[in-house]
Sequence to fold (460 residues):
Amino acid sequence: MSYIKKSPWLVHYDGSSCNGCDIEVLACLTPLYDVERFGIVNTGNPKHADIFLVTGGVNTQNLPVVKQIYEQIPEPKVVIAVGTCACSGGVFRDCYNMLGGMDKAIPVDVYVPGCAARPESIIDGVVKGLSVLEEKQKALAVPVREKQALRERELEPEVAINKSQEAGK
Amino acid sequence: MSEMVINIISGIAYLILAPVIGGLLAGVDRKISARMQRRVGPPIMQPFYDFFKLWDKQPVAVNKAQSFYVTGFLLFVVISGLFFFTHGDILLVVFTLTMASVCFIVAAYSSNSPYSQIGAERELVQTMSYEPMLLLMALGFYLNCGTFSIGEILKSPQMNFIYMPGIFVGLSYILLIKFRKSPFDLSVSHEAHQELIQGALTEISGRSLALIELAHWYENVFLLGFVYLFFAWTAPWSPALGLFMCAFTYFGDILVDNCCSRVKWENMLASTWLVTLVAGFVNIMFLMQIR
Fold:
């Protein structure tokens, strides 16, 4: 039983977005959509967050900021890129200072396209992110030794089999 | 002898049941707040989901001292609650509660984050605001019942509320601070991202944050116990009235929380001391005259 799916807290960061997606993100918190009914809380504090909701593309100015917020979120964490700009850079992609979508700065788990992304699709993206979050937590729960054994089996099946045979003897 | 056994049983019941009741109260609080804002709101069990999630998160402590102080906060809250529910001394309860808030403030001061520091400073001002009223309450019970012992106060011949309505008003006023409700949610707020992120809790995450939540559940339960004391006397139906008034006070605080915006710290300090003086002190003078 994983509680992380029932209580995802998110931190919202506006990269270089035009504010369209941010308004849609905030619309999710209003009585009409009310994401708090899923236990979702907009904490505004990366140290309390599980989900990093990011709008807008990454440029040379906000690259260190995005990276720092990402690093401050404790594991397990999920990054959701909301809007076309966060997915690929959108209309700003050819600007001289743009690096592109958010995946140029940090690993993105869920892409929510749209200009601006509608609240329904943002909620859908967050719900998709929840299953990623659960998988990550399961992966973190596996002890390091078992993880190494799994990796060995994947990379070099013969070596792993030999090792296990030796251990058996 | 049998009284001692009852005290021990109620102490153990507090240890086990208080987090359950406190968590459910927090869940009901969020649900009622949501309904007041025409939202559906999270499930009643949501605070427990949050607690277990925080327990499983990667531990990120800014320094070793922080988790020590956080544990101290929990410990002192639990101890002061134990004094209360084992029918101990009401003064001891108030002073141990102060130790708990000292631990909380020092935990917030232990990191260099400006948000955490602002939260700690505001928490200090909050403690300054509510502390006189808590002491006056203990004094009021002494003047009215002739004892500081909670066991004796529960056996008083008439309802304490009749003789100390002013002190009750003062206590309800400072309970807004203790429950961290608007207009006095200055140090830690769920709605003040722009201004202070999470205030005193900004640098506290994972298990430490879960422990703080747990401590708040314990704290809320025995603070409502103070409300209960006002409506406890020898009549057989007084427990029902006491519990009803606890629920009524909690609901009132939720209502005020949803009606008010945060005030400046000057206004909080001035208004709480004014209420303490007018309602609390005048009531004390009255009690001194009639006794």
User: Anything to note?
Assistant: The radius of gyration of chain A is 19 Å. The mean pLDDT of chain A is 85. Chain A touches chain B at residues 3-4, 6-7, 9, 31, 34, 36-39, 41-45, 47-48, 50, 74-76, 137, 140 (CB under 8 Å).
